[in-house]
Structure formats: C-alpha cells, structure tokens
Amino acid sequence: MPRGSMDILSRLSLLTFLSFLTTAWSGKVLVFPVDGSHWVNMNLMIQGLHSRGHEVTVVRTATSWYVKETAPHYSSLTITIPEAICIEKEDFFVSFLVKMLAIKKEGGSPMAFLSFYWEMLGTLSIIHQQASMVGVQMLEDKALMQKLRDTKYDLVLIDPGLPVGVLVAHALGLPTVFNVRWITSGEGHFVVAPSPTSYVPTSGVALPDKMTFLQRLQNTFHYGLNTCIDKFVVCPVYDRLVEKYFGSGLSFYHMLQAADIWLMRVDFVFEFPRPTMPNIVYIGGFQCKPPSPLSAELEDFVQSSGDHGFILMSLGTLVKGLPKEITSKIAAAFAQLPQKIIWRHAGERPDNLGNNTLLLKWLPQSDLLGHPKIKAFVSHGGTNGIYESIYNGVPVVGVPLLFDQPENVLRLEIRGAAKVLDVTQITTESFRDTVQEVVNNPFYRDNMKRLSSLHRDQPMHPLDTALFWIEFVMRNKGAAHLRTESYKMPCRAFAVL
Amino acid sequence: MPRGSMDILSRLSLLTFLSFLTTAWSGKVLVFPVDGSHWVNMNLMIQGLHSRGHEVTVVRTATSWYVKETAPHYSSLTITIPEAICIEKEDFFVSFLVKMLAIKKEGGSPMAFLSFYWEMLGTLSIIHQQASMVGVQMLEDKALMQKLRDTKYDLVLIDPGLPVGVLVAHALGLPTVFNVRWITSGEGHFVVAPSPTSYVPTSGVALPDKMTFLQRLQNTFHYGLNTCIDKFVVCPVYDRLVEKYFGSGLSFYHMLQAADIWLMRVDFVFEFPRPTMPNIVYIGGFQCKPPSPLSAELEDFVQSSGDHGFILMSLGTLVKGLPKEITSKIAAAFAQLPQKIIWRHAGERPDNLGNNTLLLKWLPQSDLLGHPKIKAFVSHGGTNGIYESIYNGVPVVGVPLLFDQPENVLRLEIRGAAKVLDVTQITTESFRDTVQEVVNNPFYRDNMKRLSSLHRDQPMHPLDTALFWIEFVMRNKGAAHLRTESYKMPCRAFAVL
After folding, report:
1. Side-chain-side CA neighbours of residue A296 (13 Å)
2. pLDDT tens, B455-464?
3. Which of B154, B155, B326, B438 is the 20 to 30 A CA-CA neighbour of B210?
4. Whether B247 contacts chain A with CB within 8 A
C-alpha cells in the first residue's frame, strides 16, 4: 500500500465525521444554566446546538444577571421566584472578597477564618435554597409541566453547579447531560468517579498531585469535610423536594450521579490526571477559537508597543472589590515596565496609572490572548481565561482571589507556565519583578507553548466533541451503557471500594 | 445561522481530521506482540501503522506460532530462546481443555479443580519465564541493544499479556503504548485503574456488575487472589530481571503501570462500565470492517439456505480438544435445523453430519458475520468473534470453553444478546432448542442490533483512534500529562484510597 494512502477504515472514519459535520436534524433541548461566568460557556454550547439545527429552551429566573430573555439562538422560559435573595448580582460575590481581604489584612486568626468559612457555608445553603425554588415553581405548575411534556424534549442539558434541573428532568423522564466542572459542593469528578486522596487533591485546597504524607492527611481531611458539606448542607435542600414530589426511597445524590453524560470542562494539560468514568467526556477549552481581528483603536495601541509587546490584565468581575491601595501598587508596577498594558478594570481608577496602561471596562480577551504581540496574561485564574491562555500559549501571572482560583493557578505554576502572587502581600516591586520574570524568562512561555501544543493535539475540537455526545444521547435516548453501577450503591464508600 | 451549516469550529475539526487522514510522516515503532489470536489484532494495528508510513519492527521468537519472519508491512527481529518450552503450539492449550472437560465429567470435586488451578498457576509461571527469556537474550546482547539504540525508535508498542517489551523499552528509554486487554494475570484495568469490587467483577469469575452481597464477597476474594498471583507468581519473574539489569529500587509492576497510553481492546457495549484513566483509550472492535464478498462456492452455499438463512459456528482453535461425543451431539442438533450451517472445525469429523452442514478448517468469519443471510453465531466467546458479531448485529449462542470465555459470553447474555450453554452438559435437544430460540426469538437479534448501533455510533473508527494516539505519543515523546501519580504509590492499596 502506498505510504499515507487512506485505507478503508480511515475512509469510513471520514464519512462518519463528515456526516456528523453536515447532517442537520432537529432535536429539542431544555437547558438549566448557572448564571455568571458559567453562562458564557453554556451560551456557546447553545449556539453550537442551534447552529446544528436543534431547538433550545433556556430556563432562567426573572432576576437573571447574564441570561437574556430573548436571543436569536434560543427561546427562554422565565421563572419568577418569590422573595428572591439577591445572589444574582456581582456585588454579592464582591462582598466576599472584601471580607476575606480584611481578615487577611488583620493577620488572619484561625477564628476569623473559621467564622468566614461558617458564613460561606450559610451562603452556600441559601444559594441552593434559592436555586431549588426554580424547581418548586416549575413542579408546582401542573400546566407548565404538561406543556413541557407535550413539547417532547429529547434531553435536559444542565450545569449542575446549581443542579435543580435534575429534578425537572426526573419529573419529565428525560435523559440528562451535564455541562460541568463544579457540582453542588466541589469538583464534578468527586461525585461520579473514584477519587483516591493519595494523589487526587480535593476541591478547596491548593495541593499538588505529588503529595507528602502530611499533605495526604490534609487532603483526606478536606475530602471528608467536602463530603459532609455535600451530605448535610447541600443535598438536604434537594432531598426535601425529592421526597415531596417523587416520594421517599429516592436520593437526590443518586439522581445527580445518574446523569447520562458528563461533559467535563477539563483538559489534562491543566487538571492533574485522575481516575475517570466511561461517561465523562472531556471538553476543556471548548470555548477557545482562533482570534478575530481587534478594533482599529486597540490594534493601534497594541502595535505601538513595538518589540516589547503588551501585557493583558484581567481579574474577572470581582476586581471591583480590590481596595485602591492594591490597585495603586499594581498601577505603579505597570508604569515601570517597557511593555504596553491593557487592563480590564471596572472598579475605581487608580490615580497613578502609567502612560503605557490602557484601562477598559470590557475587552475582547480571547482575541487579545491570540494576538502575536502579547507577552503575558495577569489573571485571577478563572477557568475561561486559563483555557484561553493555554490555547494561545500565553504564560500567566496568577493573582488568585477566591473560590477555585488558587487551585487553578497552582496547576499552571506546577507545570512551569505561571508564577503566582498572593494579592494581600503584593508590593509594587514584587508585582513588577514577577511580571518581568514571566515576560523575559523563556521558561514560562516555552512551557505554556508545550501545553498549548498538547491541548491542540486532538482529533476533534472539544466543542464538536461536546455536540457529538449531546446528539448521541438524543439519538440513543440516554447512554446507560456508559454509566457504572456505582451510582446505585447504598453507601458512598461502596462506590470506591 | 442556517441550520446544519458548518461553523468555524466544525471546520477546524474537519481540517485537523483531514490532516490526520492524509498526512504521512515516518516514525519507527518496535513491536512486542503476543502469539496466537492476540497477534491477529496486533497485526492489523501494524498494517495500519505501515499504511500511514511508519516503519515497524516486530520482535518474534524463532519458534513463533503465528508471527511470520517476513511480511510486506513489517521487518522482524527473531530471538532464539535456548531450551524453549513448547508453549507456542496450539496443542499446549488444547491439552488444558481436555483436562478440564475430564474433571467436569468426573463430577468436578473441589480437590480436582484445585489441583487443576494449581497446575495452571505453574504453567502461568512457566509461560512468563519463557517470555522473559526474550528479554534476557536481548538485554545480554550488547551489540543488538546498541543497534536498536542507533535505529532511534520513536515508540515501543507492546501487548502486555506477556510484558517483556516493557524491560526493553525501559533500557532504550522509549515511550510505550500498550495494545491490551489482558495483562500479566488479569484484565488490564486492574493494573492501572481503581477497581471497586462492589460493582467491577474481577477477572476469572463470571459475575455481573449488579452483584448481591455474597457475590461481592466472592468478587473481593477473587480480586485478592488475582493480586496475590500477580505479586507472587508473575511479577517476581520480571523483577529478577529488573534488579539484574537496572539495579534495585525499581519495581516491574510500577514500570508496567507507567505505560504512556493503554489502547484497551474494550467497548462498553460489551464490557461493564467501570472506572477508567485519562491515558486509557478504548478501541474495542478496532478489527471490525464491512464484509468483503464471499467466494463463489461459499456464496452459493449461503444462498441455498433461502429464507431460513444460515448459522455460523466457530469454537476457535481449541475445538480440536472437544471430544467426539460432544461434537456428535452438536452435529445431530444441527441436522435437525432448517437453516444451513457453516462450521469451522479442525478436529475429527463427526460421523452424523447433516446435509445442511458445511465443515471448513478455515472460514472468512468476519465476512460471513456481515452476510445478510446470517441468523446466529455459535461461538466459544473469544473477543475477536464477539466484537465481529456486535459490529454486525448477529445474536450469539455461547459455548465457552476456557479462560475469559465464560466472562465474555456472560456479558452478552446479560444484555439479552446471547444464550449460553455449558459445553459439558450439552445434549442434542438442549443445543437444538437454544439455537432455535436465538434464531427465532427477535429479542436476541433486536438487542444485538441495538448494541451494534451503539457501537458504531462513534466519531472515529476505533482503529483510527488507536493510530491517532500511537502517533500522538510519537509526536509528543510520551503522554506523561495523562498518567496519574498512582503508578508511583509505594503500596498498591494507596493507588485506590
């Protein structure tokens, strides 16, 4: 056979693949998203579904923060929650940051942290109670439920960070696909796959996968803690509804575990490798795409940086909560650099901004990360930004603030693709030197380029992979053959022993 | 966006995919196969590698049973083992079957089974000792090792059923890919992935994944037994070589676990779903392809069956060991059926063959299974045949003989795609009735068609998936980012806790 010729099997693969790319058939998908940055991801998946000919209905609350009532690519179902707690505003999360910074500034006594942690648990419970109200409103509304039944949806697509959609899917008897990284009270794998604490760092602790014995003890303790939170704080909120609407004998946790396909927003160039399951499909970085051209103004600014290039900074939507004394130090450090700086900043404008620094309330982050003149990305470590920097091979200066951000930037740091700063300890010098180190030492860029090249070395784009498996579940009315028996185990320990 | 249009991401996926299918670059692969039916699989993978432009060298022994010294798609390296034990002959395995049947016939006392089991353990040790001799011959031959180093291989491809290639790969410092279902003393997953005994049936016991408490106890006992065999019978054979050639402090088991990619000959339409690992790639059924036309003679015979269609029977290469009293009962049962029968039979010809039965020493199994007139497949439950029957949607009558065959057919039986017979209990009537039930009751065919449709619903043909990942490892000089830390755990229990 001549070299490189396509044999019959390759031709078959190509035909299957072309048929996936070109076939249009119309399925019906009911979507339960999570608001905020999670919606950015889900919205892309919905656009993908729409472009492949499917009809999408998005369930949103009347007070939704990001999810618009009308859009060309979906119709929406708006649920009004009585006495809504105001968690769907950015400020709600900003207040967390302010409190945490205040505690750290005061020396951070264990009691202060404990009380902060306790408050977070209370908030977690409130968030889930509010989210569960969407389920109550829907399940109580017999006419609505009948209408949903009559629509004959093929699938419920859920972001299980707030997993109320699971109840509605159960009531409608429909297969479910999760678009997931976080679930109830931790990373998604911890609910569905064995997670040996000897080498799988648990959620909420910034630990590596190569742990010392003491780190393993710490990890096991946190694993137990997370399990308790899940069992005693989060799940009871939904178990009450399960008992009310579906009778006793069912457990919400088992319903959660029973999802057909878990589209996991994870790629192992970023996440530590760990045990997985046949019904977990990895789609980390599915939001990444080649850069579009910048606006003329931005392009002019970027080009004016010459050979020095430019640095992009974005600390996400929480940056409003950073006190001015920190942003002033950052501004002063930037002013001393030869690079141009583009800084996404929605809070109070620092007085000492350098001439090289452009402040913007919003910026085309993905297009800037894909620009050839970019030298580094100063980021809080949100996963969207991290995957975009991996995709584009841009080294990172991590300034984690809250939630999963410390764990995220640790993963890049361990791979030599980032340096991490403690936001409460930042000085003008330390910030300047760290940024310079990441910009000038090829070590960071080379490592990030390697991650980028590994990440791009896939037979299919992860968004296409996601769409393939969503359609797989619609075509086959589920994916039971990929779901282990673990989710039926009466005791959580049985699922891993 | 118009329905079904290809958006930019799909176009990117297509470009990546087309580039995979058409790009030819020449890598060098050193292959350590296992003889017998395993070679049939490995040979297909080698043909795929050759057709994509890679140079393949196959390591074989001078007494090899199936692996030819010369072939158009590979060059070979022949190792002569002094005082070779004659395990590379079919008769060696046939004798096992004869012994087991004799024990069962005599009533099968526990002592007789224990003694048989003990003898099998002894044989297992001998097989591995002989296989390890290939490693000794190679590692002792300094000139040969230097020549291999100079050839600058990119990769060692190993069937770890006999894992001696792992030692040579270690000596050459090369990344490894496993083409695996069986490893050392059990199914491959048990070495590399967490295997909760609550729902993962262990190798060597025909248990379902939905187990009773007693079955779980039995499963856990067998899991322990297999672990002991691995630790005290198989691994010591190779550990002695590891110590001799690489010094102490290294463990062969860890080397085995450290393979870069595990191409697992498993698909979950067949295997029970179970925990897996990021570096396990599923290629079950990669040998399957659309049928080629039959020879004129065979086609005439098959067409002469009219609407009744035909039944295919093959009990693999071991059928020579079946006593004539059993084959006579089978022949008598076939003679009573309205279907035509094509029977692969290399042993003594039964005297009572019906006119409807054609006996052949070899037959184009895959093409016959793909023929529209086939009604059922009577099979011993070897995995090649099982995947071909799944691919073609042909229901199975299982007549398992030895090794993994009872477990294999149990999996199909649980899915309603097969009925299973105990070969020692076969009567003419039971055999006839079972075959008729599978042929005439649409339940079996419908279930098998469903498995077939699920199996075929993949974005890429599994052989292309295998080739993609082999090339991935060559391109990236390994796949360390997909390999968990579990393989470095000092104690096996740590890897799952």
Report:
1. 0
2. 999 989 999 9
3. B438
4. no
Enumerate residue ranges in chain A where pLDDT < 50: 1-5, 88, 497
CB contacts of B12 in chain A (<8 Å) are 289-290, 461
Would you tell me how many other CB atoms lie within 10 Å of the CB of residue B289?
Answer: 19
Q: What pLDDT band is residue B316 in, cutting at 50, 70 and 90? A: confident
Considering only CB atoms, A459 lies closest to which of B5, B273, B468, namely B468
Q: What is the pLDDT of residue B120?
A: 83
ipTM: 0.92
| CA dist., res. B381 & res. B378, Å (int) | 9
Distance separating alpha carbons of residues A196 and A473, to the nearest angstrom: 29
In angstroms, what separates the C-alpha of A443 from chain B's closest C-alpha?
18
Q: Is A215 on the interface with B (CB under 8 A)?
A: no
- What per-residue confidence (pLDDT) applies to B490? 65
Looking at the complex, report in whole angstroms how far the Cα of residue B118 sits from the nearest Cα belonging to chain A.
Answer: 29
A 61-90 → B contacts, CB under 8 A = 73
Extract the tokens encoding A139: 């399940």
Amino acid (one-letter) located at A294: L
Mean pLDDT of B227-245: 93
Q: Determine what percent of chain B is predicted with pLDDT higher than 90.
A: 69
Q: Which residues contact A68 (CB under 8 A, 6 or more apart)?
A: A76
* B195 has a pLDDT exceeding 50: yes
How does the average pLDDT of chain B come out, rounded?
Answer: 89
Provide the whole-model pTM. 0.93
Q: For residue B464, give the chain A residue with the closest CA.
A: A10
CA distance, residue B394 to nearest chain A CA (Å): 19
At residue A27, the pLDDT reads 94
Say if the Cβ atoms of A48 and B486 lie within 8 Å.
no
Q: Is B20 on the interface with A (CB under 8 A)?
A: yes
Q: Does B490 touch chain A (CB under 8 A)?
A: no
The gap from C-alpha A255 to its chain's centroid, in whole angstroms, comes to: 22
Q: How far is A52 from chain B (nearest CA, A)?
A: 5
In the numeric block, the tokens 């998203």 are attached to A33
Assigned token pair, A66: 């990001």
Q: B89 — phi, psi (to 5°)?
A: -120, 150
Render pLDDT for B398-429 as a digit per residue (tens, 0 to 9). 999 888 899 999 999 999 999 999 988 899 99
Put simply, whether B240 touches A (Cβ < 8 Å) is no
Domains of chain B: 22-286+461-495 (3.40.50.2000), 296-456 (3.40.50.2000)
For residue A17, give the nearest of B7, B279, B460 by CB distance: B460
CB B265 within 8 A of CB B180: yes
CA distance, residue B469 to nearest chain A CA (Å): 9
- Measured in residues, chain A has a length of 497
Q: In what order do the strands lie in the sheet with A155-158?
A: A75-79, A55-61, A28-32, A155-158, A176-180, A261-264, A280-282
Q: How far apart, in whole angstroms, are the C-alpha atoms of residue A470 and residue B459?
A: 13
